[in-house]
Amino acid sequence: MDLMTILGPCELKDYPTEGPPPRYWQFERTVPQQLFAKYIGNSDLEFHEANLAKNVYDATLIRWRRLDRRVKHLQGERWDYKGFHYRPITTSWIEYGEVLRNRFTKQQEHYGIGTE
């Protein structure tokens, strides 16, 4: 027996102005999708935000790898003696750079804004 036959389709209602706001899983189209979103899976919003974060991370990696290729090309082209001291960029450097950037930009005391 199909779950849609037992529970029926979801009804379209106006957005409630009174009471608590609706949960994310209540915006799914069918009851089985609501149950899946509530108890098992992620919401569409969480899935979208995870994809955005992954895209930003991938774009950062692409930018750093492009820069790395450019540095190696210029070192080979110019016979750069400083190339022996060059250490290639790793993902841990990128993550550490993000941590430092967040630490310095989110600390208001660092800029003297929140100190009293």
TrEMBL record:
Bilayer topology annotation: Single-pass membrane protein
InterPro entries associated with the record: NADH_UbQ_OxRdtase_B5_su
Aminoacyl-tRNA synthetase keyword on record: no
Localisation per UniProt entry: Mitochondrion inner membrane
Gene Ontology terms: cellular component: mitochondrial inner membrane
Keywords: Electron transport, Membrane, Mitochondrion, Mitochondrion inner membrane, Respiratory chain, Transit peptide, Transmembrane, Transmembrane helix, Transport
Pfam family, one: NDUF_B5
Function (record text): Accessory subunit of the mitochondrial membrane respiratory chain NADH dehydrogenase (Complex I), that is believed not to be involved in catalysis. Complex I functions in the transfer of electrons from NADH to the respiratory chain. The immediate electron acceptor for the enzyme is believed to be ubiquinone.
Subunit relationships: Complex I is composed of 45 different subunits.
Family the entry assigns: Belongs to the complex I NDUFB5 subunit family.
Name the UniProt record assigns to this protein: NADH dehydrogenase [ubiquinone] 1 beta subcomplex subunit 5, mitochondrial
Record lineage: Eukaryota, Metazoa, Ecdysozoa, Nematoda, Chromadorea
